[in-house]
Each structure stands twice: as C-alpha cells, then as structure tokens.
Design goal:
Blueprint: E1 7-10, H1 16-19, H2 27-49, H3 62-75, E2 81-85, H4 92-101, E3 119-123, H5 128-137, E4 143-149, H6 155-172, E5 180-185, H7 190-198, E6 201-205, H8 218-226, H9 231-244, H10 254-269, E7 273-278, H11 284-298, E8 300-302, E9 308-311, E10 314-317, H12 328-333, E11 338-345, H13 372-389, E12 394-399, H14 404-425, H15 433-445, H16 452-464
The chain binds 5-phosphoarabinonic acid.
Length: 471
C-alpha cells in the first residue's frame, strides 16, 4: 500500500508556456541543458560508485537500522524525555522528522497519548535563557541526552555537553552515563574520544557524510525511532526516490529537473530567491531543513575550477496559509526575483468539517458544508493561480499523504537535487568554508588552543575599526 504513496513534481507554472518567456523557462532552454545534465548524472553515478557520495547509499544501510532499533528497544520505557543536542545538520533533520510525523502537540500529550514513547526536544541554539528555561521543565533523572556533532567540536553542542554532563553527574552520580548517548564522526572527533574514554553508548556518522546530508544516519534515525517513527519506511521512501531519479533524461528525473529549473530561473531569469512554501504545518520543519541544505551547499565563493563566482540562490522559508497574510504581498507585487515552491499534501490525516447547521450568518453561508481541508486547498489554489497570473514562477510538490515513506522520498529528492545544483553551479556542494570560518573565529575569540594567530588578527582588526556609526 505504502508503495502507492508517491510525490509528484508539477512545474507547469515555471514554464514560459504558462507565464511567458521573460520569467518562465522555455522547453528550448531545457533542451539546451539536456546534454550537460546527462553528463552530470553520469559523473554523479561515477562519484557514487567510487564511494565519494555516501549519503546516496544511506537508505541501503541495513546494519545501521538494526543497530538503531536494537538500541531503541533496549531503552524502551526507560526515559520520559529524549533531548537531542546539536545544531545545523545535527538538529534540523530531527526537527523536520518530528514536526512531520509526530502529533502536532506531541510533547504535551499525556504518556498514553504518546503511546508510552518519550517526549522529544531539540536544543540547538545556546540562548542562555532558553537553556535555563528548558532545564526547568525536564528532570535529568527522566531524560536521555543525545549529543550529536559530526566534527565533535562544535562549540554550541560541546558547551551544552559540558553543562549537562556536570548536571547529570551531580544529580545521578555514576549512573549519569546511562543518560547519555553520542552521535559523532566514525573516525576523528573530540566527542568520540570522550565517548570512548567515558564509556557512553554511541552511534557513528560515516566520515564521508556531511552534516546537512546526515538525516538518514543515526543523526536523524535514532530520535525518530525513539518516538515510534517507522524508520524502515523512511529509508524505503528514500530508496524508492533513488530509483525514480536514475534517468539521465531531464524530463524523467525530478531531482535533475528541479535543479535545472532553479538554476535556469536564477541565471537566465534573475530569480535569485527560492521560496519554500509548504501548505502544511507538519512540513514547516522540512522547509527549514531544505533551506539549510540549499544555502550551505550552493552558496559558494569559489567554483570547482577555483574562480571567484559567489554562487547560489537564497532559500526563504514561508508557510501556507499563514504567509498569505504577510509575505505574499511581496511575492505578488515586489521584485520579479523569486521562484516559489509549494509543498502540499493531497490527503491530510484529518478532515475537519466547519459547519453543517442551517442558522449560519448569511455572510458565512459559503462555509457551510466545507471543511478546513477545503479552505486550505482553496487558499493554496487561489494563491497558485494569482501568482501565475502575475507571471510569478511557481511549482508544486504534492505528497499523496504525509508518511514516513513519502518523507523519506522528499529528503532524498531534495538532497539529490542539491547535489545536481552543485553540478549546475559548478561548486562543491559538500563543503562549507563560510560556516567553518565562523566556527574558527568563535574558537579564536574564546581563546581555544591552536587558534592564537587568528585571535591576534581579530584583535588587530577590532582595534582598527572604530565604532563610530553606532547610536
Ligand atoms: O552541514 C553542515 O556541515 C553544518 O551545518 C553542520 O551540521 C553544523 O555546523 C554542525 O556541525 P557538527 O555536526 O560538526 O556539530
């Protein structure tokens, strides 16, 4: 049955035929990129075969699934809370999965309502007030902390690690170790060293899989399985999408077509902003995850042949229907610099009728016999149509249903599309020198050993810059 739950990519409203050649892509423009796109498919396949694109093979890693499920089974009933501590690619996948697949108010359901599964929280930002507030609501004795950091050194995660382990030790003595599970690089990581020394339970992330491509490793799988998400379905969905995206014909490969359309819209039609607008609260986490994936992978100063290119289009999160009352004004009448991607669900889990009785205010009669689903749908269709009428390029990804199986498809589609994006922009979609630069400066400012030279440079820079434009 689940094999029938698929996703469709409708890009009619991005095409010139629908919105004109000034803003839309012509079939000829797609035909022109077909030969190079076919080469990208081949080169990605070659890189994959050579073991350089490990994220593409994650859905086939049965050993990891078995290990994750064994661990979650052994932990069943032991904790009221699971707290993921991580940031960026070590947090956003978790948020995406939980927001998509768990009850919308999962953490405030009763134990019964959660079917005995623990509450799941993600601590990414290190805002001190948020941290303190969070510690007010969880008891360490009832909580399992999953520290996730690929590099094993990220300051946000490791500073929370130090605070929390001290707190656990103080409260629980030797038993504190039972409350910690770490997820980190399989080869080189400070957290891995600590883990081995202390004897914590741990999962590893394959060295060749970068943070933002790691949702289908234990990074995302463990907390998902802890809350009862069917991780096998999630991975099966990814496998399904892998099969769908094999063709080197742009018209038959949605990941390749998506990358080509975004790239052409940007470079030929000036659409340097990519709005991701799901009409589903449950998909809001996916749009946040997507924005990191697209921005961090493709926003690059240097091309693969070392030229300064400052590549990338800017992803923006938006939410239907909420942003119809906010951002939409800009999308409709502001600069012609955006492509909007809608993400919709054909069949929501619930159907909520609005009103059936006869004595409704005449002004509200039109709502009689309708459901919230009808209103949501009407608002989506109305917005899609209005944008198209204004020649605003937009496309729609439709999920038959939102399930672990379709979410797995979506993750894989977007990851692969981003890898193809790297090919089109001719940049390395798998490094993040800009993010690393921020990490290095933070280490230097905080006085980390090995970063003395950078600290000197920063001090010199700060002395030169007078704060004269400050009110
Ligand atoms: O995608 C990435 O590489 C980054 O967003 C990282 O996930 C983020 O910086 C956190 O890094 P780490 O997992 O090493 O703590």
């Amino acid at each position: 049955m689940k094999g029938k739950q698929t996703i469709q990519f409708d890009f009619n409203n991005i095409m010139a035929e629908r919105i004109g050649p000034e803003h839309g892509i012509t079939e000829q423009e797609l035909r022109d990129v077909q030969p190079i796109a076919a080469q990208y498919v081949k080169s990605l396949k070659d890189e994959r075969a050579a073991g350089r694109l490990q994220f593409l093979d994650l859905p086939y890693d049965e050993k990891t699934v078995t290990e994750v499920l064994k661990t979650t089974t052994s932990l069943k009933g032991k904790f009221k809370n699971v707290v993921v501590v991580g940031i960026g690619g070590s947090a956003l996948g978790n948020i995406a999965v939980h927001t998509a697949l768990n009850h919308p108010f999962y953490n405030i359901l009763s134990d019964e309502g959660r079917k005995g599964f623990p509450r799941v929280f993600v601590l990414d930002n290190i805002d001190p007030d948020k941290f303190a507030g969070f510690m007010d609501i969880v008891k360490p004795s009832e909580t399992l902390f999953n520290f996730i950091t690929k590099s094993g050194t990220t300051v946000e995660t490791m500073s929370q690690f130090l605070i929390i382990t001290k707190l656990l030790k103080d409260k629980l003595g030797k038993a504190y170790k039972e409350h910690i599970i770490t997820t980190t690089d399989s080869k080189k990581s400070t957290l891995l060293d600590i883990t081995k020394r202390e004897g914590f339970k741990f999962f590893t992330i394959p060295s060749g899989v970068g943070g933002r491509y790691s949702v289908l490793t234990p990074v995302g799988l463990f907390s998902a399985a802890m809350s009862g998400v069917d991780i096998t379905d999630l991975l099966d969905g990814a496998v399904f999408m892998d099969k769908v995206c094999q063709s080197d014909n742009i018209w038959e490969n949605p990941a390749l077509m998506g990358a080509a359309l975004y790239f052409l819209s940007h470079t030929k039609k000036g659409k340097n902003i990519l709005v991701m607008m799901p009409y589903s609260n449950a998909l809001s986490g996916v749009s946040e995850w997507f924005c990191q994936l697209w921005a961090e992978s493709l926003g690059k100063k240097l091309s693969l042949d070392n030229k300064i290119v400052h590549a990338g289009s800017t992803p923006v999160r938006s939410l239907g229907v909420v942003d119809q009352h906010s951002q939409l004004q800009l999308y409709m009448e502001g600069p012609y610099d955006k492509v909007i991607t809608f993400c919709v669900i054909k069949q929501f889990n619930e159907n909520i009728p609005i009103a059936t009785e006869n004595n409704i205010e005449p002004e509200l009669e039109y709502l009689k016999g309708q459901s919230l689903n009808d209103v949501m749908n009407a608002e989506f269709e109305g917005t899609q149509l209005a944008l198209t009428e204004q020649s605003r390029p937009n496309c729609t990804i439709t999920l038959d249903k939102l399930s672990a199986f379709t979410l797995g498809q979506l993750f894989y589609l977007f990851e692969l599309q981003t890898a193809y994006g790297g090919k089109f922009y001719n940049v390395n979609a798998f490094d993040q020198p800009g993010v690393e630069a921020g990490k290095i400066n933070t280490f230097a400012v905080l006085g980390r050993r090995g970063f003395e030279q950078r600290k000197k440079e920063i001090d010199a820079l700060c002395q030169r810059v007078q704060k004269k434009y400050c009110i």
